[in-house]
Amino acid sequence: MKSTFIFPVMTIIILFSMSACGPNKTDLSDNPFFSEWNTPFGVPPFDKIKFEHYQPALEEGMKQQKAEIDSIANNTEAPTFENTVAALDASGELLSKVSSVFFNMLSANTSDSLQQLAQDMAPAMTQHSDDIMLNGKLFERIKTVYDSRESLDYEAQKLTEITYTDFVRSGALLNDKDKKRLREVNEKLAVLDLQFGDHVMADNNAFQMVLEKEDDLVGLPQSVIDGAAQLAEENGISGKWLFTADKPSMIPFLQYSDRRDLREKIYRGYFMRGDYGNENDNKDLIVQIVSLRLERANLLGYENHASFILDRNMSKNPENVYDLLMKIWDAALPVAKTEAADMQKMIDAEGGDFELATWDWWYYSEKIRKEKYDLDEEMLRPYFSLENVREGIFLLSNKLYGITFKKIEDIPVYHPDAYAYEVLDNDGSHLAVLYMDFHPRASKQGGAWCTSYRDQHVSNGKNITPVVSIVMNFTSPNGDSPALLNLDEVLTFFHEFGHALHGFFSDVTYKRLSGFVPRDFVELPSQVMEHWALHPEMLKLYAKHYETGEVIPDELIKKIEESSHFNQGFATVEYLAASLLDMDYHTLTDVSDLDVIEFENSAMKKIGLIKEILPRYRSTYFNHIFSGGYSAGYYSYIWSEVLDSDVFEAFVESGDIFNKELAAKFRKEILAPGGLQDALDMFVNFRGREPQVDALLRNRGLK
Ligand SMILES: [Zn+2]
Question: What CATH class is the domain 382-568+636-699?
Answer without folding.
Answer: mainly alpha
